[in-house]
Amino acid sequence: MKRFTIISTVLCCMGLSAAAQEKKDIPEQNVDRMLHLGKEDSAKDKTYISLGTEGIRVSSKKLDSLNRGRKVKLHFLMLDLGINALNDRTDYGSPAAQQYLQVPGDKKNSSLFSLRQGKSINVNIWPVLMDIRLLKTRNQKISLYTGAGLQLYNFKFNKDISYLNNTSPMLIEDSIQFSKNKLAFAYVSIPLMVNFKTRMGGNFWVTYGLGVIGGYCFDSWTKQISDERGKQKNHDQFNFQKFNLNLSGEIGINGYIRFYGTYQVTNMYQNSLVQNPYCIGIRFFGI
Fold this sequence. Notes:
- The longest helix is centred in the N-terminal third of the chain and has 24 residues, at 2-25.
- The protein is 12% helix and 54% strand.
- The strands form three sheets. An eight-stranded antiparallel barrel has the order 4-6-7-10-11-13-14-15. A three-stranded antiparallel β-sheet has the order 1-2-3, with no helix packed on it.
- It is elongated and about 80 Å long.
- The chain has helices spanning 2-25, 63-66, 95-100; strands at residues 35-37, 48-52, 55-59, 71-88, 101-102, 121-136, 140-156, 161-165, 169-173, 180-201, 204-226, 230-235, 243-253, 257-264, 275-284.
- The protein has 287 residues and is mostly beta strands.
C-alpha cells in the first residue's frame, strides 16, 4: 500500500509537471474559446466544426490557425527576364532638345531612338527578399515583400548614334556604321510589393500584385562594335538621372508561370529629352 501511494504520488507530480510545461510552451493568445468537434482521418488534412462567439464554422484547419499573427520569412532568388521599350514624350521642337541633338534637323524625332526590340533586354536579379505575411485564409493569401537586388537595362539602337559628354552632354549621328550599338544601365534597387494569391480550386492559385521599385544607377555605359574602331566601351553618366522610380506589377498562376511589368515614372534624362523606359517579361521563382 505504501509503495502504491509513493508511485501514485510520483506519477501525479510528473503529470502536473508535464501539464505545466505544456502550458508554458504554448504562447498566450487573445482568442475566443472554441469548441472543436471533428474526427481525424488518414489524410493529412482535418475537418473541424468550430462553435464560438462568431457562430458555427466548418474549416479544414483550426480557426486559431487561420489568421495567426504576422509571419516573416526569407525568400531566396527571384529572377526577371524581359524586353525593354521607351515611351518617348520629348518635345523635339524645344530649345533644350534642339541643342542636345547634334544631328540633321530632319532626324530630330523619336525614330532616332528606334530599338532592336528583341535584343533590348531587361534582367532583374533579387538574391534575397523578406516576405511578410499579412493574411492567410483557406482561399486567400496576402503578403508584403521587400529586399534588394540588381536591375540591368540594355537598349540596342538601330541608328548609328553616339552619346558624348564633353563640355556639355550631346548626342550625335556617327560617321561610321556599327554592327552593335548599345546603351546599358545597372541599378541597385529596392522593391516594395504587395502580393495576392487567390485559390481558384484545389491547388490552383492565381497570383497577382503591385508596388514600386526605387533604384540608384551605379553604372551607365555604351558599347559599340564597328570594323573601323573595333569594340569600344565608354562608362559615363552622360546626361542620365542617377535615381529612378518604377511602378511594378505581376500576374500569373502560382507554381506554373508568372509575368511582370515595370514602368519608370521618372525621366531617364536630367534635361533635354523626356523618355520613360518600360519592360515586360517572365518572372522565375517568384514569391
